[in-house]
Amino acid sequence: SVLGCATLAIIDEYEASGGDIVTDIQNDLEASGALDDSDSLDADTAEAEAAAMEAVDEALSVLRDVNDADIQELAAAFDEGFAEGAGFGMAEMGVDPVMFAEWLIGDLDYTVEEAYIFDDGTGWVDVTVTVRDVSAFSTTFDDEVDAFMETEEYQNMTDEAALKAKLGELLLSAMDKTMGTTEDYLMIDVVEKDGTWEVDPDSLESEMEYLFAF
């Protein structure tokens, strides 16, 4: 994410110049009398990191433990995204959006790895995700469409409904050929508000768009 990458770049530059951001924060607090024991800073940081990781886990849990309402919502979102690119929805191709959503997230799992928290009340959380190989699916679908467009069947096709139905067949075929999963990585921004760590909604949306882009 933009915020996460920018923060990481700042830290890298600072440490490359010989500085240590954690040590400097601790020294400033000790000099002001706000911190008498270095363990206090470590404990506060650990607590904030745990809270940030818990917030991210809660936000992502809907993808692991989906109910019928969640599936319907995801299906609508995927169908809308497809329609924006193709100009028509999956149903017009004879493909059930709910079935597609179930296929796409059926084997999804994730691990919240580590949190990076800073004294300005911002940070990010790293997540490893096991998810359907959307890139392989998209490539397979594109290849099947390209191959179909070279056929005499396509050259002689004049009925739009028949064309959409054929595209639906190719979509289902691509799904059958790409049942495998892949490992991906997310970096989700978090922010502290009134003492509580929360997921930045824009960051979460951006990472979900990246994860399920097809």
Backbone CA Rg: 23 Å
Largest sheet: 4 strands, antiparallel
Distance between the termini: 19 Å
Tell me the series of helices and strands, N- to C-terminal.
Answer: HHHHHEEHHHEEH
Oligomer state of the chains in this structure: single chain
- Mean pLDDT comes to 84
> Which blocks of ≥5 consecutive residues have pLDDT under 50?
1-15
The backbone outline, from C-alpha atoms, is: elongated
| Percentage of β-strand residues | 15-25%
Topology overview:
Layout: H1 2-16, H2 21-32, H3 38-64, H4 68-86, H5 97-105, E1 109-117, E2 122-132, H6 134-149, H7 152-155, H8 160-177, E3 181-193, E4 196-199, H9 201-211
Antiparallel strand pairs: 1-2, 2-3, 3-4
Question: In short, what is this structure?
Answer:
The chain is α+β, with helices and mostly antiparallel strands. Helices cover 61% and strands 17% of the residues. α4 crosses α5 and α6 (134-149) packs across α8.
